[in-house]
Predict the structure.
Amino acid sequence: MDYIEEVIQMAEENNPNQPEFLQTVREVLSSLRPIINANEAEYRRMAILERMIEPERQIIFRVPWTDDNNQPHINRGYRVQFNSAIGPYKGGLRFQKNVNLSIMKFLAFEQVFKNSLTGLPMGGGKGGSDFDPNGKSDSEIMRFCQSYMTELYRHIGPNIDVPAGDMGVSGREIGYMFGQYKRIKDSYDNGVLTGKGKSYGGSRIRPEATGFGATYFLLEVLKHEHESIEGKTFCLSGFGNVAWGAAKKIAELGGKVLTLSGPDGYIYDKDGVQGEKIDYMLEMRASGRNRVQDYADKFGCEFFPNQKPWGNVKADIYMPCAMQNEINIDDAKKMVEIGIKILNEVSNMPTTNEAIKYLQEHDVIVCPSKAVNAGGVAVSGLEMSQNSERLFWTQEKVDKELQKIMKNIYDQIVKVTKLYHLDYNLVAGANIVGFKKVADAMIAQGLV
Ligand code: 2IT
């Protein structure tokens, strides 16, 4: 049997109730065919694919906390340490009601390839909890973070595993977790978490990095198409940290963001999300209401309840910034019908496998999230560097490094698509580049 098919089947048998994890395994493995075919004997001998789909360690723990009325609550905490071949585990923490082991494993698996693409020495991991931060008071958030870290601390460290933020975890939560870690360890291990505040070891540009990086990646794609960003229209989803950074950079470079979305629907702003409206996104997020309708109410634009922009709004470029599987096959068909040319994936795995295939077959350029959103973790890597050398870099320096990293990611991908005659398939190119470096390291380090 074909090696790739064999390992996909093995993943299906061993993880029957993990649809998101199986989705990314199928997507990644089936795109590796050219490099697997070229090295099959060696990869089989070293069980590369079998090891690539099995996390090195998975930690699940109880997180007890009390609310402001002294009522007890129990959540489930996770940390999946997927692969440490090229560096300590690195990846965010997600606090969201729907978090489960399948979602943790899909995110950790993708993080392995993404982190490899950055060119920085970071392995892949991910964690979080099914805790729902919406509507919680600040002291409830603090108690939850402290309880979560009271277990997690024994599994992490600057040379072991370095968590950061993801959905539901930003500067405030990182601060509370860092405080608790430091208190338990009685040691100022600055590099144990990234996304810290500027006053205690955080890097400049980390909050903006995912959205800025995604836009820098897009600039390379537009250059390839002999186009520029000026005057282009965009549909974004989400209104959190990632959408905020993207909107900021797009507006700065002369593009126009027409939509944002939330769990309640999407807003359409014909004048573009810009200036104070971008700042207002931060207020919406800080309010903890998790509603995008507030934007429409404040600025008097249209609001479409319970709908997504995909396929409903004509724009030059789509940039999903909310979460996994936002774009399905029906959306993809509508996108092709209304003539969308570029899908720049910013959230992790925003598109179903069926939809990616359909879009590519209909000449839509799909820019894969593992590459597009790698700027976030890349600046986390730069934060680790700054913590190690006990220095702070200027905003200009971090931004310049980020631009260099995003261009390098793009260049490596294009080089590999040429090497393997993959036309301009950036999805396959990103997977192959990310995979190769990790596989080489795993071979060199033996069967561990
Ligand atoms: O999905 C991601 O890459 C992140 N949530 C950021 C991870 C990090 O370590 O900065």
About this structure: The longest strand covers residues 72-83. Residues 201 and 301 are 40 Å apart (CA to CA). The radius of gyration is 21 Å.
